[in-house]
Specification:
The chain is mainly α. It has helices at residues 4-17, 19-37, 48-90, 93-110, 128-133, 151-173, 179-189, 192-197, 215-221, 233-256, and strands at 202-204, 212-214. Strands 1-2 form a two-stranded antiparallel ribbon. Helix 2 packs antiparallel against helix 3 (48-90) and helix 7 packs antiparallel against helix 10 (233-256). Mean pLDDT is 84; it is low at 201-213.
């Protein structure tokens, strides 16, 4: 059963999506009202009344078919789409949380002292301090969450999992997702940050030399040296761009599931939970 607010929202969306169909409805209403109001007036030309009556009857038929389409097809289909869209967004919860946790780990590994360990909103994590401190983040350091991998390998692995999760959701629910949700997901999956850590782009390793290096060559070429890939405005910009896309998708999820929003897990700041603060600081 649709509530009044839900019905009003659906109709507003319908009028926005079906502008031509809605325009014809208003024209039909105008014709019917005009015919009723001018029924007793003399004809302006022979058979004018019969022609006007025909237009009025066709308009009434159009209005009836319009109402039938709304009640029998559009509203039930919209309700179904909203249901599956809600399910799709619900499946985003874990991938979004894990991705947010990844950036918390990067920030935690880049500072010696945690000063903002009690955040209410996820947006608060990505402040000026975040972008300043991650400039010291050395991707060649060992990732304590996976002893077999360096940070650059670990982030790449997590980005691949994240991208695959988003792809599965869009493939399964594309028909039911609003265009703005699909656009938000695609922007996030195709960000420069994702492309780099998935091995599809190059990046300037500014602290070593001012040149472009493919991700596959970073570790081999600069083994034993600090690789603080975010210590340059261009590389820092790709993080900011990615965070912007990420928070946009988080907002869509949080607006739909306000009882279970994506937030910062402040327990992760504890030193007893890997990684330790400052464990991936390089020389900048």
């Amino acid at each position: 059963m649709l509530s009044i607010d839900s019905f009003g929202g659906n109709m507003k969306r319908f009028f926005s999506e079906y502008k031509f169909t809605t325009g014809l409805l208003f024209l039909a209403i105008f014709i019917v009202i005009s015919y009723i109001l001018t029924d007793n007036l003399p004809e302006l030309f022979p058979y004018g009344d019969a022609l006007f009556k025909l237009l009025s009857d066709l308009s009434l038929a159009y209005m009836a078919s319009f109402i039938f389409f709304i009640l029998v097809q559009y509203l039930p289909e919209t309700k179904k789409r909203q249901k599956y869209q809600e399910i799709a967004l619900r499946q985003l919860r874990i991938p979004l949380y894990v991705h947010a946790r990844l950036f918390l780990y990067v920030y935690k590994s880049s500072v010696t002292e945690i000063t903002n360990s009690n955040l209410d909103a996820l947006e608060d994590l990505f402040n000026d301090s975040f972008y300043k401190e991650i400039r010291a983040f050395d991707v060649t350091k060992q990732a304590p969450l996976d002893s077999q991998k360096t940070w650059i390998e670990y982030i790449g692995q997590e980005c691949l999992r994240f991208s695959n999760s988003l792809e599965k959701i869009t493939d399964k629910y594309t028909y039911y997702l609003d265009s703005n949700i699909i656009e938000a997901i695609e922007e996030l999956r195709n960000s420069h940050f994702m492309r780099f850590f998935l091995g599809e782009a190059e990046i300037r390793v500014y602290t070593i030399e001012n040149c472009w290096v493919h991700i596959d060559n970073v570790l081999d070429s600069y083994k034993g040296k600090n690789v603080s890939i975010f210590n340059a405005s261009g590389e820092l910009d790709i993080v900011k761009e990615h965070i912007e896309y990420f928070l946009s998708l988080v907002k869509i999820y949080n607006d739909t599931h306000q009882s279970k929003p994506i937030v910062v897990d402040n327990q992760l700041w504890k030193d007893s939970i890997a990684p330790k603060a400052g464990s991936a600081i390089g020389n900048i």
